[in-house]
Amino acid sequence: MDVALRLARRAVGDTAENPPVGCVLVRDGRIVGRGRTASGGRPHAEAEALARAGDAARGSTAYVTLEPCAHHGRTPPCADALIEAGIARVVVAIEDPDPRVDGAGLARLRAAGLDVSVGSGAETAAVIAGGFLTRMRAGRPIVTLKLATSLDGRIATSTGASRWITGPAARARGHRMRARHDAILIGVGTAIADDPSLDCRLPGLRTRSPIRVVMDGALRLPASSGLVRTARDRPTLVVATSQVNPDRRRALEEFGVAVSTVAADEEGRPCVTAALAMLAESGIGRVLVEGGAAVARSLVAADMVDTVAWFRAPVVLGGDGIPAVGALGLDAVDAAPRFVSVRTESLDGDTLEILRRRP
Question: Which of 200, 217, 266, 358 could in theory staple to 178 by disulfide, Cβ–Cβ 3.0 to 4.6 A?
Fold first, then answer.
């Protein structure tokens, strides 16, 4: 199961709309086949492991990090494939909450006479498949808020200058994070001010660049921006409100930008909860939020931030700098959202701290 979990972890951020899954086939104490969910979600891990094992799969034990599927989609059910291959025993880490599965895969295996057990490696498997599980259970993706700030929590100077607060090692670590998410989300203010490319530029991971999402209620994103000019090469989605200029929408779509609309919040911006629900419906399970302060404020206020990845540099920008999170309007400290520090990393003078939502 440890090998299967490692395989599944490699697939994180590369399998939307399917979950990252690992599968290992063992016969007579020897691994005869292994696989993980392929890029784009197909083939599934079980199918890949069976193909590698061939006839050696018969009589083997399958270790799978998520319950094998039991429904016909673009591929046949993995539960049926395991049965037909003559697998004798199946060890599953966690059950699949997808309504099309939800125990049906396990039931089908047991009905065919296979020995089935559940629970080995469950805690780790749930973390690896967290985006998929949250999408199935809560109807939204997992949200990681990435902040690159000074010691006093500023993301830019009073003039908007922000390049570069953190150093090369921290920025490279940020690119690795991008490769493990299905989408990167920013606000239009950040898109206009920074003109980011929002891709993964690390060697060997350039193909793992996620979908780029811009929250842009009034479609202010200019056609001259890098995001628009490269939209035909890298999927780019603009989330607007229904009250948008149709000519602006048409202009963006002509460049290959996808435009979707959601309800507006009380400030007239695209509602973040509605936007996350829309992304979940499209198969997005893991979202990395990279700015700016207004988007961060909306997500924190809506209690939609699961993880904070806080990169901080040993520099002070002062009270006139731009804060990482916009005003929350809190009257008491007890009302403030709280997070629990999980770990810290040193990155050539900068620090990365990972914090989780407090249980």
Answer: 200
